[in-house]
Automatic annotation (TrEMBL):
The lineage of its organism: Bacteria, Pseudomonadati, Pseudomonadota, Alphaproteobacteria, Hyphomicrobiales. PANTHER family: OLIGOPEPTIDE TRANSPORT SYSTEM PERMEASE PROTEIN APPC, OLIGOPEPTIDE TRANSPORT SYSTEM PERMEASE PROTEIN OPPC. Its main location: membrane. The keyword Transport applies. Keywords: Cell inner membrane, Cell membrane, Membrane, Peptide transport, Protein transport, Transmembrane, Transmembrane helix, Transport. The chain crosses the membrane at residues 35-55, 179-201, 221-250, 297-323, 344-365. This is Oligopeptide transport system permease protein OppC. Coiled coil: none annotated. The keyword Cell membrane applies. CDD domains: TM_PBP2. It is a multi-pass membrane protein. Belongs to the binding-protein-dependent transport system permease family. OppBC subfamily. Residues 177-366 form the ABC transmembrane type-1 domain.
Length: 381
């Protein structure tokens, strides 16, 4: 009698799966708490700049002439001690005298007198001041020289105060952030496209072409940036697009050198030689092999380029060579705040705070991406 041994099913051999560079970089970035905090900060700042101006309750260009240089705080304006002076100023404009004045539950009750019959249209000064609502006439004397009026006190909140003409500074900082971030991202994108293409072509072709292209870069490096902007201002009007063109025309130089150095180290690799032996054209080698293998340094350089562009735009706007009214940016607001530093220091502190937080977050995120995309760092077990 034979003993039949049942065969056991063969179990598959588990082999460790290779981890792609993107997955490895993502894992490293998620473990880097400062970089994650910087990324969250940037997302919050970007969302605040995009949606915040619609939620503050103040239009960016709205002027409150009776609320000039209000200090930052959570208190409602006008404050109780400012209601009577505001009424006196408005009565002076209306050429009326305030005989009686009382405030109760956010409502002002006034008794106005005049040597002549009072024209009711002059009461439009009350709602026009933005401090009070439409007036309601409660009593009127027979000769028309005495009116009892009731009006509602408007309530406004200025978290970061107001500027020298009475505009809400918080709203203006958020709107200015749109322009500064737009300039930073757009100029960086242009620098990436031009710099990566220029550096990759120069490094891959090599020889006399490479030498000629790099000498052109050296010549552009030698031109003073501010002088270049002033020359552009001779032919074009200062504004947002001029800033974008000026910054993008200069900031691609560093990117071109970085990509050229990476290309020189890659062109001798076996996969590039194999592609050349197979007859691939130079554009195909650049797109399929050179540029994808330089993504790491490019991403890191781009992340660090954005804060430099924003700072450069702020410098130009501070000198009056950048963004012009009615548009605004953090640099424009900082320039305005520096002129009112003694009387209203919050005008400088508010936009400078937004700028510093954004620049620090971008630099910390750039350092985190540099560590995450560095292939020489070993993955902790």
């Amino acid at each position: 009698m034979f003993h039949v041994e049942h065969s056991r099913p063969m179990t598959a051999v588990h082999r460790p799966r290779a981890t792609s560079l993107a997955a490895l970089a993502r894992r490293r970035l998620l473990r880097n708490r400062p970089a994650l905090a910087a990324l969250v900060t940037l997302i919050v700042v970007a969302l605040a700049c995009l949606a915040g101006p619609f939620l503050t309750g103040h239009a960016p260009g709205r002027i409150y002439p009776d609320l000039v240089r209000m200090k930052p705080g959570l208190a409602a304006h006008p404050q109780p001690d400012a209601v009577r002076p505001a009424i006196d100023r408005l009565a002076f404009r209306m050429r009326l005298a305030v005989e009686d004045f009382a405030v109760k539950d956010g409502t002002v009750r006034l008794t106005l007198t005049s040597p002549k019959p009072i024209n009711e249209r002059s009461l439009s000064y009350l709602p026009r001041s933005d401090l009070f609502g439409p007036p309601k006439i409660l009593e009127r004397s027979g000769d028309g020289r005495r009116l009892v009026v009731e009006t509602r006190i408007q309530r406004f909140y200025f978290l970061l105060g107001t500027d020298v003409v009475g505009r809400d500074l918080f709203t203006r900082c958020l709107v200015a952030g749109r322009i500064s971030l737009l300039i930073g991202l757009t100029a960086t994108l242009v620098a990436l496209i031009v710099g990566v293409s220029y550096g990759a072509v120069s490094g891959l072709i090599g020889g006399a072409v490479d030498a000629l292209m790099m000498r052109l870069v050296d010549i552009l490096y030698a031109l003073p940036f501010v002088f270049f902007v002033i020359v552009l201002l001779v032919f074009f009007r200062a504004g947002l697009w001029l800033v974008l063109v000026a910054i993008a025309a200069v900031e691609w130089l560093d990117m071109a050198r970085i990509v050229r150095t990476q290309t020189l180290s890659l062109k001798g690799r076996d996969f590039v030689r194999a592609a050349q032996a197979l007859g691939l054209t130079t554009p195909a080698i650049l797109v399929r092999h050179i540029v994808p293998n330089t993504i790491g340094p490019i991403v890191v350089a781009a992340t660090l380029l954005v804060p430099r562009v924003i700072l450069l735009e702020s410098f130009l706007s501070f000198l009056g060579l950048g963004v012009q009214e009615p548009a605004t940016s953090w640099g424009v607001l900082i320039a305005e705040g520096s002129r009112a530093l003694e009387s209203a220091p919050w005008m400088l502190g508010a936009p400078a705070g937004f700028l510093v937080v954004s620049l620090v977050a971008l630099n910390v995120l750039g350092d985190g991406l540099a560590d995450a995309l560095d292939p020489r760092l070993s993955e902790p077990g």
